[in-house]
Amino acid sequence: MNIILIGFMGVGKSEVGRSLAARQGMNFIDADEIIEKTEGRKISEIFEKNGEPYFRDIETEVIKTLEDYDNFVISTGGGIVLREENVKMLKEIGTLVLLTAEPEVVYQRLKETSDRPLLMQGDKMESIKKILDARNPIYEKVADYKIDTSNISPQAAVEEIVKWIKRSK
Known about the structure:
The protein has helices at 13-24, 31-39, 43-50, 52-65, 84-93, 103-110, 124-142, 154-168, and strands at 3-6, 27-30, 72-75, 95-100, 145-148. It is α/β, with parallel strands linked by helices and 169 residues long. The protein has one domain: P-loop containing nucleotide triphosphate hydrolases (Rossmann fold), CATH 3.40.50. Helix 3 crosses helix 4 and helix 6 (103-110) crosses helix 7. The protein is globular, with a radius of gyration of 15 Å. The model has no long low-confidence stretch (mean pLDDT 92).
């Protein structure tokens, strides 16, 4: 069984994922890190030089490489669920756990970053709200379980996921 963390940037997928994997004796993979290693460059550079559609194609290829993985916590990029084929493949390899956070919390967590291509155009807060408005219905539709990380620590989020896993067995 794999646990796949989905959700917007800044909600804690990587941090929660690493902690959850350690807690459960599972392996951890960050899909964005795989993309950067495969491409030999940062995601921001991929977006800048090749555009978002190219990046989304690479994301889809990464999912295909994960189909034989078992006992992994997989942290995904925030837009991975934008393609139905990605969602279908992800659901075949694991359970989708959605991490969310209020737009203001995401902004506080990301306001100093300069490596988030989708937030580099115009006002960050407005960009966050606009993207969340578009993606939240998709996130909600595809998630098997959801946790709001706005006011809890990554460890508390891990404990909630562990409790949910035990209840759903």
